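User: Can you write out an input/output pair for a complex, sequences first and structure second?

Assistant: Here is one pair. Inputs:
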Amino acid sequence: MNIKRLETSRLFHRFGFGPRPGEYAQALKDGVNVTRTKLTIAPAVQTTISPVVTPEITDLGKRPEPNSKEIVPFAIAMRAQEQQLGLWWLDLMALSDHGLTEKMTWFWHGHWATSIQKLNYPLPMFNQNKTLRTQSLGSFNSMVKAMLNDGALQFWLDGQDSTSKAPNENLGRELMELFVLGVNRYSEDDVKAISRALTGYQVVRSTGQVSINPSRRDTKPVTLLGTTASFTGDSLSDFLVARDDCAQFISERLWYRFISSTEVMPASFSAKSAFASRDIATAVKAMAADPSMRDEKYALVKSPVEWFISACRALELTPSQLQTPTQLKSHLDKLGQVPFNPPNVGGWPAGGAWLSSATAQYRLAFAAWLIKQSPLNALNQIPIESRVLKSADWLGVPEWSARTQSALRTSLDDPAQFALLALCSPEYIVSA
Amino acid sequence: MDTISRRRFLKLTTGAVAVGAAANFLTLDEIAEAAINRPLPSGTPILVMVTLYGGNDGLNTVIPFKDPVYFSSRPEISYKAETMLPLDAELALNPSMGGIKSLWDQKKVAIIRGVGYPKPDRSHFSSMAKWQTASPEKHINSGWLGRWLDSQPEDPMLAISLGSVLPPMLAGNKISGSALPLGGLVIPKGTFAGQCIQLSKVARVDSPLMAAAATSMRNLFSVSTSIQPVLKSPAPVALDLPTVNGGNAGGDSNLSQQLDVVAKLIAAGSPTKLWSVSLGGFDTHANEANAQAELLGVVSSGITRFMSQLKSTTRSNDVTVVVYSEFGRRVKGNASQGTDHGTSGPMFIIGEKVNGGFYGDQPSLTKLIDGDLAVTTDFRDVYGTLLESVLKSPAEQTLGKWAGRTNFMKAV
């Protein structure tokens, strides 16, 4: 495989949500170094190709009693806001001029996987999403501190039910296992200790506002990972984030989502040493330049949302304009991935899990539905005689296999069918 | 996890059939005449795995109802003794599990107590991975039933999981099971089918993941052509259960719908020896008693109905159902009327060929290890018996040299 095409393709699909028409061919002309710099340093201000209006997500207040007359307008407002929230984020992913910020926000959403299904209020999820975006390429320590004060996460993991009298271990365990250190890098006694240190948080469910109730808080010193202290949320974050295991774990997670979900991270992976300062942007930049980016063995399956957004960018579609939003949600739901709705606190699966016969069918139907709504400008502009090979540039695919080329050749005079086969080809489902 | 996974499952039930993608997709009617042409020979054993995600509280499932320590450890989430369903002088089932209780009375239920593995891991994900790979000591990428599939002739119909995401349990090193969403698969036809078959050829240059992407499309054809017509037919009738609105009681949960599809396909002779269904939502850190009772009620009525449906087929003697979860929960309740992650729990094995009764020792409530129940039976003992006595296969290729067995199957 042509390594320059491979690396350029990975930069677009892994550090963003895929190229817009023309971007991949231009990047090949610019060269890998220029493209890497361009795609992996986020601009200070995020711009979009067309305006994305921030939705008005409001405090819906206490849920009215079932069967009361107030419950109907409440439920309607709740559903409308939840829908606007989802479409707003999908629009940002599809329309952003620079992909990295949204890609990182998406990565962190899967990392601190919180679901609206338990919260049942859009505002705390909206607030959490803004926090993740602001912190997405900043200091990891600030992110952990912000997340401990995030109402959606606290409520999701029963933080508001954890008191000095009876600590609930849900948040403390996941903080170490899934968010900061990684599994088995602590003992069960540490879980009990950290859970005591995290008691006393209270959450206003409808807004996600967090406060600390001193009378519910256990301020007695605990021994956590060999250190005895009376921790606050902030000092706990300082303590955990400073540990070597944190750099190991975060670089493992970056490896898993950006480089390979099937191969083990080598000790030399450059994101790990680059994370010494706990600055996320530095680790991401190092990862983009790591030799693994040029190694053919590190293929990665696009998750359904990643596949869908990259298709929107190639097809010049705006998610919120698709007819209808309900159908869009149903397509994403069938593929098993709806933003703000991860299956559990571990986030979404990766790799082969997205490659069942069921997803193959749903992907075909989803792609056909999208293509019907696209003008297919970019594809129509490619002359028929060079359409098979040039369509790889349109989609940012390093190369088509002979198998896929021969399938595409059967649809040269039918652009919609051609696009359908291309978007559902193994080369587009998987980032080579 | 909490209730979301259950609600997510319930939501998936609306994932109906043909997604309006024009004439390129077959409708169910168009392929309704097709038939299964290589039925599973009658008498072939069939294993149905029921996975409870989230960590089912075993102590509130099979309850030591005479032990005062049970009531004092969890005053807010213990059940009243008079509502429980006694199995013997010491243990009772959760009040919501009337269906399983009647199967127990018919000696069709083996309850294996205190099942787990050495050095219990309280992470949902690690612990479920240990159960599904049957490798508690080191992390491996293949599932235990996937390794069994590796030893069988390749056939995408041999092992089927309900739902669109395949559980790791069914992923082998070479061969994996198939996924079947509720509502079934819609396959391309005509010229489009030819194009899709072209796209699904594995190319020499494919990375393993690209090859898997190609194969998933190929399996769409092989699984759906045989399964689709059967899904159109009505579910077998459960003769001995009351009917509600034309269907049997308990048929409104997602688990029941999954089991309904399994029952239909078993009745039709699908050449499938292994089925996987699941229910989520067992992570009851808060407000446990009602939530867990509701879920266990779904499990109990779903399985009872399934076993009853099978009686109207020729295969009711062939099916063995296995119920497990990644861990049990802490003995002592927490402040949120819930329980935190624990260790061992009971497994249920249900079927006509099962030798009903208790197996394994009930973990003591007073000799806790770090506040948690001891493990008295290794899950590999159970798997070994399932492989040998149900799937009639040597256990070693799947479990390595593991000697333990739990003899809950009747001698043939």
